[in-house]
Automatic annotation (TrEMBL):
It comes from the Bacteria. Keywords: Hydrolase. NCBIfam families: HAD-SF-IA-v1 (TIGR01549). One of its GO terms (biological process) is DNA repair. The lineage of its organism: Bacteria, Pseudomonadati, Pseudomonadota, Alphaproteobacteria, Rhodobacterales. This is HAD-IA family hydrolase. One of its GO terms (cellular component) is cytosol. It comes from Paracoccus aestuariivivens. SUPFAM superfamilies: HAD-like. GO terms for molecular function: phosphoglycolate phosphatase activity. PROSITE patterns: COF_1. Pfam families: HAD_2 (PF13419).
């Protein structure tokens, strides 16, 4: 068997507007100035407390926690209004093509909590697509390899037969730490040059290219 693990924000769904709005809501709630989108999106992929600590390195843990709570409040309010980030064009076709392979399993590794992940998957009818779903709940933040290690343990697939698909250096660094192949995508939140620098096997320019590369990878002969 092969295992292909996907990141969510910036890889499967375009959630940048939601993330920027939620972070600035949290900042405003504690009296801090808003940040530019590029600065906020640079920390996407990290678990929320780690991301906020990186954005506000001089702030107290109490202030960090208040921003975390504000961010989550904004997300809950958006979900209550029916706001759901859209899938990137070609994402569903890619999942369909991989799922059609008898020897390929699909997984998720995301900095989202499980509640947030399930809300996205349910909104897009994808809850049954992924045999392993690893989230920020109970795992260290990316780029620690714990999420991928758990995915390998749950599925029984070897690291040499596993690929991680993501848009940030945290995804690629996590893949390298876990001994799996890292596939980058250039439509997300980190620059292509940074993904290459982190060790991505390739950086796909669009979903059709990613799909082709993943299908070719699944056919390669490798020692398990």
């Amino acid at each position: 068997m092969r295992l292909v693990v996907f990141d969510v924000d910036g890889t499967l769904v375009n959630s940048q507007h939601e993330i920027v709005e939620a972070m600035n809501y949290g900042l405003r709630g504690v009296g801090l100035p808003e940040m530019q989108p590029q600065e906020i999106l640079s920390i996407v992929g990290l678990s929320l407390p780690v991301a906020i600590a990186r954005l506000l390195p001089g702030a107290t843990p109490d202030l960090h926690e208040r921003v975390v709570l504000g961010y989550r409040e904004a997300f809950v309010a958006a979900r209550a209004k029916g706001v759901v980030p859209p899938l990137y064009a070609g994402a569903l076709d890619c999942l369909d093509a991989l799922a059609a392979q008898d020897d390929v399993l699909l997984g998720i590794a995301t900095g989202k909590p499980m509640r947030g992940l399930m809300a996205v998957l349910e909104a897009h009818g994808l809850t049954q697509r992924f045999v392993t779903r690893q989230t920020a709940d109970g795992h260290p933040s990316k780029p620690h390899p714990a999420m991928l290690e758990s995915a390998l343990s749950e599925t029984g697939v070897a690291a040499s037969r596993t690929a991680m698909v993501g848009d940030t250096v945290f995804d690629i660094e996590m893949a390298r730490a876990a001994g799996v192949t890292g596939f980058g995508v250039d439509w997300g939140y980190h620059p292509t040059v940074d993904l290459h620098g982190a060790g991505a096997a390739l950086v796909a320019p669009d979903y059709p290219s990613l799909t082709q590369s993943l299908l070719e990878w699944t056919k390669q002969e490798q020692v398990a």
